[in-house]
Amino acid sequence: MDSELEANSSAIDEHFKYVFKSFGRSRVNEAMQYALLGGKKLRGYLVNQSSKLFEIDLPKSIWAACSIEALHAYSLVHDDLPAMDNDDLRRGKPTVHKKWDEATAILTGDALQTLSFQLLSDPRFKVGDDCRLNLVYELSVASGADGMVLGQALDILAETADAPLKLDDIVRMQRMKTGALIEWSACSGAVISGEDPSALLEYSRSVGLAFQIMDDILDIEGDPSKVGKRVNKDQDAGKATFVSLLGMDTAKSHSASLIDRANEALTPYGARAKNLQRLASFVISRNK
Predict the structure, then answer these.
(1) Which of 15, 81, 164, 189 has the fewest C-beta atoms under 10 angstroms from its C-beta?
(2) What is the rounded average pLDDT for all residues in the chain?
(3) Is residue 171 part of a domain?
(4) Number of domains in the chain
C-alpha cells in the first residue's frame, strides 16, 4: 500500500509542478507549494482509484485529485493557526505560520482554496459542463458552512462547551470536518463518469469515520516523529473523542467493523475495487 500511495503522491506533486509553472514568483506561491508537499494524499488517491473503477485515466482524474488536495492543504494551513489548533508542526515540518508568519499562512490558505476550484474549472480538465458544475457544487457544499467549515467550528466550540460532546455529536461533527471531503473524493469517479455513486458514498462514510477514530487513537498512542505533529493535544485539552468515550479497545474494534462495512459496500465492483479495499484496511493500520 505504501508504494502505491507514494506513486500516487508523486503523480499529484508532478501535476502541481505543471500547474505552478504558469504562476508568478511570490511568497504566497512559495508557501502554497510548501504546504502541498508531503502527506499521504489519501483524498487524491481516492479520486484516482474511484475514477479507475470507471476506466477514467489518470491524465483526466489528476485534475480532481489535485483539486481536493489543494482544498485539504488549505484546511490544514488554517487549522494550524494560533486562533485554531495552534500547531507548530505539520507533516514533520514547521507549519506555514511558523516558517513565515500568520498573515502569509492566512493568505496561503485562501489561495489554496481558490486554486482547488480553479483546477476543476480549468478547460484542460476534459469533462462535460454538467459534470464540472456538479463537481464544483458538491465540493462547495462539502467544504463550506454545511460541511468541513461547520465541522471545524463545532470542534472549536466543543473546547469551551459546558458539557463534553456525546458520541452522536462527535460522529456528526467528524462526518463534516473529516468525512465530507473523503466522501467527495470517493464519489468523484462516479460523478465524472455519470454513474451512480451510492456504493462509493456508503464506502466513504465508513472509511471517513474509521479514519477519524484512528486519528484519535494516534493522538494517544502515536509516535510524534512518525505522526509528524504534536500528539496528546486532545487529551491535554480535555476534549471528548472516540477513545475517551468508547475506550481504546472498543474504539479499535469499532474502526475495524467500519472497514468491514466499507469493503462490503464495494461488492458491486468485484476485483476492480481491490485497491480501494486495501486503502480501507490501511486507514486503521497506519502509524501517521
Answers:
(1) 164
(2) 93
(3) yes
(4) 1
